[in-house]
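Thread: Newbie trying to understand structure tokens

Hi all, I'm a second-year student working on a class project, and my supervisor (Dr. K.) asked me to get a predicted structure for one chain before our next meeting. I've only ever worked with sequences, so writing a 3D structure as a token string is new to me. If someone could post the tokens and maybe explain what I'm looking at, I'd be very grateful. Here's the chain:
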Amino acid sequence: MEHNERIRKERTWKGRKARKGLQGAVIVTGIIFVTELVGGWLSGSLALMADAGHMATDLFALLISFAAIRFSTKPCTKERSYGYFRLEIIAALLNGIILCVTALVVTFEAFKRLSTPLEIEPVQMLSFGLIGLGANIVSALLLHKEHKESVNIKAAYIHVLSDLAGSVGVVTGALVISLTGWTAVDSIISFVIAGLIIHSALKIIHESANILMEAVPGELDIHDIEKTLLEVDHVINLHDLHVWALTSGVNALSCHLMVDDITEGRNILAAINRQMKAQYNIDHVTIQLEDQADTGEPR
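---
Reply by user tm_fold:
Sure, no problem. This is what the structure looks like when written as tokens:
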């Protein structure tokens, strides 16, 4: 429990910085949503309306991420000895699903628009698109530094990046329509935006599901870890090695080690804890030592 509390305090400090970035992104995204909604209605642009709808889901997603970070730093309890670390992963998974639904809605509307094209005002579309582009750049910069710390922040960051791609698409579409009058490009760009959203969402869902399934973190190689453990002095064999993540950046390991001198147990464990943290960023290390003499195996 004490070890979990130390990690919680470390994540609380990191969470404060992430919350500031998310707060800024929430404000900016809310402004963009209203601006693009009005702009899409005035200009008749589906790409702009699609981006506004995407902004609405992103605003909701960013609020989920913000709430998850806030609650994930709550202290451990007797019922939840690991605390609320996994709330961030649940939020990331939910955000990935929201992104997929958004992409499907955008695709459906784009197909409808291809069969029944509407008149589009490219100047208004371009003006509102440029406003959205500038604001999305600000949001992306607010979250850029922290997005590697957590899959939850990464999900929020990808939401913002897909918004940025959408704004680029809106601006490009407005320029093409103003130069050529080809309004179908509005729907085509909407398809591209939907594809980008799906691609990002599936990555987030995959990463979140891996953590919830307690898979080996993608940045770690369990065979390398096994080799490192076997190279520790007095360790002669191991079994039941498990490596997983409690949440993004908080890795755990458990295993049984057979040693040739059980009296060196304290030194063995201290050496392993230091090496696992320094080399693999594994914070939680739980090891059961087994004396070779008790197994009857020759030394």
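A couple of things are worth pointing out once you decode it. The chain has two domains: 2-212, 222-295. The CA atoms of residues 209 and 237 lie 32 Å apart. Feel free to ask follow-ups in this thread.
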